[in-house]
């Protein structure tokens, strides 16, 4: 992916940096981010989610991977930012991300999170439900502020890899079903609000989607909904946010869609359908997270040793695990790995890569063929740029790894490695 190559020492090189030198300088485990690839992905979205006659916006879903340096990069690339918590919002504000380009999500935003968002004057709050609307109204009155919002709706589409299925309409914890009978009643509440300005709707049909048709189906269902609220509730939709979910390659089981084609087709469909239905074309937004950062991330580990079990399993033990990448344990996610200091050697043996946590499920990769691995080798797990650092934990009191950005042979530390002192930071001895 991106700027990955093999150098003349037979080592993996990313962004012009020898991965083995990176481990010597920054230690292991280490998250390495190919900055050019993240920027390239931002540009692919910006350049291809565009069509004459439609206003568009690409919003990076920061839950995938966020820190101050990521905020700066996303802002430099001209994308907007989706945050789902006070912590993500705080990071964006500290990084001086343009506030008018921040969108705030969440099915249970606390009053404090809403106050923070209102006071900062962020671009849009995505309202989840009626109670939140009432709370927001109250808070805006108290603070003497106004706010533009979108309403999160649930279009009843549950997209899965390779297929999409209709779920029962009311089982999602997010948003309001587009099929609910009292939707006009709810919209009326927005319309009479003095403080809250409803610009349109938001939906998100799922994540790691490989079935292009799911996106198109989402658009069709949403446009029918826009037509219905126009006719039944007299509501003209100015903005339509279609969420994220574009699937990426992690391993051979993944077959990503042709992104450029899909983005264009989505907008063509919006144009065609709105004309057919005689609707005003809304501004259309998308919120990719994983597809911006996943393939740009690599985690480097040092091998502590190997073990052949009585049952015939061949383990490689690395100095990280489910604390820095919980996705295999959590979702059965499949990753590819390589031996970063043995890139020119032939694959010979079948291994299972296990972490160091006190848990049998702490496996990073099952059954992978690699060159013969020994203690002190450096193992690279690929495509760890999304939902790894952001989902990392301190289980077993293991400090979180450092994050470096690499580009043109330069490595920039963007998050320091946690220390044992950091682990104790909030502990009190009474
Ligand atoms: N917008 C909304 C409202 C979302 O809920 C999400 C993801 C996104 C955008 C971005 O979706 P993406 O483009 O990244 O697929 N932890 C899981 C993924 C959870 C996704 C939650 N929502 C994982 O590691 O696979």
TrEMBL record:
InterPro entries: Ala_racemase/Decarboxylase_C, DAP_deCOOHase_LysA, De-COase2_C, De-COase2_N, Orn/DAP/Arg_de-COase, PLP-binding_barrel. It catalyses: meso-2,6-diaminopimelate + H(+) = L-lysine + CO2. Pyridoxal 5'-phosphate binds at residues 245, 287-290, 387. Substrate binds at residues 290, 327, 331, 359, 387. Gene3D superfamilies: Alanine racemase, Lyase, Ornithine Decarboxylase, Chain A, domain 1. It is an enzyme of class 4 (lyase). The active site is at 358 (proton donor). The keyword Cell membrane does not apply. Pathway: Amino-acid biosynthesis; L-lysine biosynthesis via DAP pathway; L-lysine from DL-2,6-diaminopimelate: step 1/1. Residues 38-294 form the Orn/DAP/Arg decarboxylase 2 N-terminal domain. The keyword Amino-acid biosynthesis applies. It holds the Pfam family Orn_Arg_deC_N. One of its GO terms (biological process) is lysine biosynthetic process via diaminopimelate. It comes from the Bacteria. GO terms for molecular function: diaminopimelate decarboxylase activity; pyridoxal phosphate binding. Residues 31-385 form the Orn/DAP/Arg decarboxylase 2 C-terminal domain. The modification N6-(pyridoxal phosphate)lysine is found at residue 63. Its cofactor is pyridoxal 5'-phosphate. Its EC number is 4.1.1.20. Keywords: Amino-acid biosynthesis, Decarboxylase, Lyase, Lysine biosynthesis, Pyridoxal phosphate. HAMAP family: LysA. Homodimer. Belongs to the Orn/Lys/Arg decarboxylase class-II family. LysA subfamily. PANTHER family: DIAMINOPIMELATE DECARBOXYLASE, GROUP IV DECARBOXYLASE. Specifically catalyzes the decarboxylation of meso-diaminopimelate (meso-DAP) to L-lysine. This is Diaminopimelate decarboxylase.
């Amino acid at each position: 992916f991106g700027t990955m190559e093999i150098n003349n020492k037979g080592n993996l090189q990313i962004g012009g940096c020898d991965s083995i030198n990176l481990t010597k300088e920054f230690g292991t485990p280490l998250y390495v981010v190919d900055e050019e690839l993240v920027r390239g992905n931002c540009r692919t979205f910006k350049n291809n989610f565009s069509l004459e006659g439609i206003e568009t916006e690409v919003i990076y879903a920061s839950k995938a991977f966020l820190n101050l340096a990521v905020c700066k990069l996303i802002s430099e690339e001209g994308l907007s930012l989706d945050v789902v918590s006070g912590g993500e919002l705080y990071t964006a504000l500290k990084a001086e991300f343009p506030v008018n380009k921040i969108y705030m999500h969440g099915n249970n935003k606390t009053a404090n999170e809403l106050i923070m968002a209102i006071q900062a004057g962020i671009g849009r709050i995505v309202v989840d439900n009626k109670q939140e609307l009432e709370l927001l109204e109250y808070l805006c009155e108290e603070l003497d502020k106004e706010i533009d919002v979108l309403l999160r709706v649930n279009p009843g589409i549950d997209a899965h890899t390779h297929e999409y299925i209709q779920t029962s309409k009311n089982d999602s914890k997010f948003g309001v079903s587009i099929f609910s009978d009292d939707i006009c009643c709810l919209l009326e509440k927005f319309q009479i609000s003095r403080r809250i300005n409803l610009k349109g709707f938001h939906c998100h049909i799922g994540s790691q989607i490989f079935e292009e048709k799911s996106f198109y189906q989402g658009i069709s269902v949403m446009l029918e909904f826009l037509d219905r609220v126009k006719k039944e509730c007299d509501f003209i939709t100015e903005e339509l946010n279609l969420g994220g979910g574009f699937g990426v390659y992690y391993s051979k089981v993944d077959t990503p869609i042709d992104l450029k084609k899909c983005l264009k087709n989505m907008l063509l469909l919006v144009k065609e359908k709105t004309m057919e239905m005689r609707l005003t074309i809304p501004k259309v937004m998308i919120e990719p997270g994983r597809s911006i950062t996943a393939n740009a991330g690599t985690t480097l580990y040092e091998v502590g040793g190997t073990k052949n079990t009585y049952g015939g399993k061949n383990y490689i033990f690395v100095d990280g695990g489910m604390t820095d990448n919980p996705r295999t344990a959590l979702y059965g996610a499949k990753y590819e790995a390589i031996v970063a200091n043995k890139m020119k050697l032939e694959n010979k043996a079948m291994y299972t890569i296990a972490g160091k946590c006190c848990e049998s499920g702490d496996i990073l990769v099952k059954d992978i063929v690699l060159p013969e691995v020994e203690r002190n080798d450096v193992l690279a797990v690929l495509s760890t740029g999304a939902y790894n650092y952001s989902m990392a934990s301190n289980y077993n009191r293991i400090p979180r790894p450092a994050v470096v950005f690499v580009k043109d042979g330069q490595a920039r530390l963007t998050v320091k490695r946690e220390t044992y002192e950091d682990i104790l930071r909030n502990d009190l001895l009474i």
